[in-house]
Design brief:
GO molecular function: 5-amino-6-(5-phosphoribosylamino)uracil reductase activity; diaminohydroxyphosphoribosylaminopyrimidine deaminase activity
Low-confidence stretches: none
Order of helices and strands: HEEHEHEHEHHEEHEHEEEHEHEEEE
Shape: elongated
Distance between the termini: 32 Å
Catalytic activity: 2,5-diamino-6-hydroxy-4-(5-phosphoribosylamino)-pyrimidine + H2O + H(+) = 5-amino-6-(5-phospho-D-ribosylamino)uracil + NH4(+); 5-amino-6-(5-phospho-D-ribitylamino)uracil + NADP(+) = 5-amino-6-(5-phospho-D-ribosylamino)uracil + NADPH + H(+)
InterPro entries: APOBEC/CMP_deaminase_Zn-bd, CMP_dCMP_dom, Cytidine_deaminase-like, DHFR-like_dom_sf, Eubact_RibD, RibDG_C, Riboflavin_Biosynth_HTPR
Pfam family, one: dCMP_cyt_deam_1
Domain CMP/dCMP-type deaminase: 2-125
Length: 349
């Protein structure tokens, strides 16, 4: 069992290379072992490209060794046709006799069918090696398929005395109030590149005019998700610049007569459970994960609706004395650390 864990750990290392690029596919790593030596390995390419098993098999120089090898995969090989053919069929085609799987795929298109197909073809299949770690790696994917909503990360920076913004005066310049340091800000841009969507409420856009893209890191821009009940956000705001796909949640039907470039309008009822309605629309749009960056009302509404999976909080070395109070969240502190002179903590429900 220990030797199996060793190679599944390598699968997990490889799979992480796909963070932020594989969605809606999961991140998967694959390792092929012959006579105690790794002869091939791979991870899932950006969406539309090869799956991990394909890349691992392609990397093997001497294909004649495959029918005497073991393939390790962090997630059950797929058994359906999507953008690419089934990986289970590829394993059978190359007559790989032994398959070790980290965790079964919860996706209804797979859900044990890959393992079943391999066993029916005569493969010796072992399932459940480092299952907890494999499930944690694809927490976004599993949350999406099991809870029918995106994996939701809440993020904010607050002062030592518990404020996330200063008290704004009328006509104040539309720009963010920085509480965290430049290293924390760069880390946030890295996080943005790892998620499929980024959400803010109306007041955050009006007050800060944020771009909501990835600038201090290299990576893919997330889909912008904007809450604007009565279309108060000016059309000149950066979020409507057309550079990134944007989903606008509003109750105003006039939004359809004010079409903006690269903006999808989603009509919802703001008198009902807004967070749940948002999750329903994002699920239909196959957005598996979002990071919510403000403001206080939007963040608190998702907390109150119990629709969140992680809260990431920076505490800056600053005191405001008055302003906008930080949201209140209860949960378990996963870990805490310092980012230069700021402190940072992650809380889970």
């Amino acid at each position: 069992m220990k030797i199996h864990e060793k190679y599944i750990k390598r699968c997990l290392q490889l799979a992480k290379n796909g963070l932020g690029t594989t969605s809606p596919n999961p991140m998967v790593g694959a390792v092929i072992v012959y006579d105690g030596k790794i002869i091939g390995e791979g991870y899932t390419s950006p969406y539309g490209g090869n799956h991990a098993e394909v890349n691992a098999i392609k990397s093997v120089t001497d294909k004649s060794l495959l029918n005497r090898s073991t393939i390790y995969v962090s997630l059950e090989p797929c058994a359906h046709y999507g953008k690419t053919p089934p990986c289970a069929d590829l394993i059978v085609e190359h007559k790989i006799p032994e398959v070790v799987v980290g965790v079964v795929d919860d996706n209804s298109l797979v859900s044990g069918e890959g393992v079943k197909r391999l066993r029916n073809a005569g493969c010796d299949v072992l399932v459940g090696i480092l299952e907890k770690e494999c499930r944690e790696l694809n927490k976004r994917f599993f949350t999406f398929h099991n809870k029918k909503r995106p994996y939701i990360i809440l993020k904010w920076a607050e002062t030592k005395d518990g404020f996330i913004d200063v008290k704004r005066s009328e006509g104040a310049e539309k720009q963010p109030t920085w509480i965290s340091n430049k290293y924390a800000q760069q880390l946030v841009h890295k996080w943005r590149s790892e998620e499929q969507g980024i959400m803010v409420g109306t007041n955050t856009v009006i007050k800060d005019n944020p771009r909501l893209n990835v600038r201090s890191w290299v990576g893919k821009n997330p889909v912008r998700i904007i809450l604007d009940n009565s279309l108060r956000i000016p059309k000149e705001a950066y979020v409507f610049d057309g550079m990134v796909k944007t989903i606008l949640f509003t109750s105003s039907r006039t939004a359809f007569s004010k079409k903006r470039n690269n903006v999808q309008v989603a009509l919802i009822d703001y008198s009902e459970n807004v967070p749940q309605q948002v999750c329903n629309v994002l699920f239909k749009n196959e957005i598996q994960s979002i990071i919510i960056e403000g403001g206080a009302y939007t963040l608190q509404s998702f907390i109150n609706a119990n629709l969140w999976d992680e809260t990431r909080i920076f505490v800056g070395n600053t005191i405001f004395k008055e302003g906008v109070k930080a949201p209140q969240v209860n949960g378990t502190a996963l870990f805490e650390k310092n980012v230069a002179d700021d402190s940072f903590k992650t809380i889970i429900p």
